[in-house]
Amino acid sequence: MRNMIKQVLDFAAKCPHIRIVGMEGSRTNKNVPKDEFQDFDITYFVDDIGCFTQNDNWLTYFGTIIMMQKPEDMELFPPEQPGYSYLILFDDYCKLDLTLLEKQQINDYLQQDKLRTILLDKDGVIPEQIIPSDIDYWIHNPSARSFDDCCNEFWNLTPYVVKGLCRKEILFAIDHLSLMRRELLRMLSWKIGTERGFDFSLGKNYKYLSRYVKTELWEALLSTYCTNSYNTTWQALFQCHSLFRAASQECAEKLGYPYPLSYDKNISKYTEDMYQKYNS
To answer: How far is 60 from 17, CA to CA, in rounded Å?
Structure first.
């Protein structure tokens, strides 16, 4: 397997316009298992971005490109971050997400996220070694307000799911159920935090959550993704309610926060009433 980091640094060393090379993402995180699917998230800090964006020929240095996206050149999916970026998949299936930033942006880059490191600093502008940390991605210890906000959002979304199901608009219902599940996952992360501490990360999109919950809970959560019919979507909704209720009550007790019973009681009754009315 080729050494992409070496290629990245060799190219930077030869190019006078590149002054600093940064790396971010999972490859800087010592707590993340290494595998072939990890992207190489690289940032070149340059003195003139225009020198690179005139054409893409220079990218062939890194290999044969089979797929590429340039968010800054897109209309439907505009960029979310500053600079100019290339999301590239090569023919050996190595993935490189390469961003160009002006060299003056280095301080903002280092302050935005602690899961970053510097691979090359030609001008010695970085005063000390940058040690990456995933602290920005640790489970959030919620305030009483955040806890109530999560509960409010979860239960407030339920009528949209119910409306979609009763109207036989299943795509509408499924879409809002996914928004509910987002709050369920948030609450489950807080539940894990109350049990194990708030000093670690569950990964992007809660991808490590299965490591910290019992098999019964995990299987119940997965069942909420079965929405291929009106009946299964109703059952997924009821299961979301059950899981959220148990997790939020546990969190409320351990964190010393009031449990918003009225949200649960009123919306659960509404859901059951509508289910009986339209499924009798």
So the answer is: 18
Q: Which helix (H) or strand (E) holds 97?
A: strand 95-102
User: At 152, which helix (H) or strand (E)?
Assistant: helix 144-166
pLDDT in tens, 30-68: 999 889 999 999 999 999 999 999 999 999 999 999 999
Burial of 149 (0-12, 13-18, 19+ CB in 10 A): middle
Task: Write out the two tokens for 225.
Answer: 């993704």
* Burial zone of 161 (CB within 10 Å; 0-12 exposed, 13-18 middle, 19+ buried): buried
Nearest by Cα to 195 from 224, 217, 227, 169: 217
Residues 6+ apart with CB under 8 A from 77: 69, 71
Task: Tell me the C-alpha distance between 130 and 210, whole Å.
Answer: 31
How many whole angstroms separate alpha carbon 83 and alpha carbon 72? 8
The number of angstroms, rounded, from the C-alpha of 152 to the middle of its chain's C-alpha atoms is 22
pLDDT tens track for 206-233: 999 999 999 999 999 999 999 999 999 9
Query: CA 83, CA 61: separation in Å to the nearest integer?
Result: 21
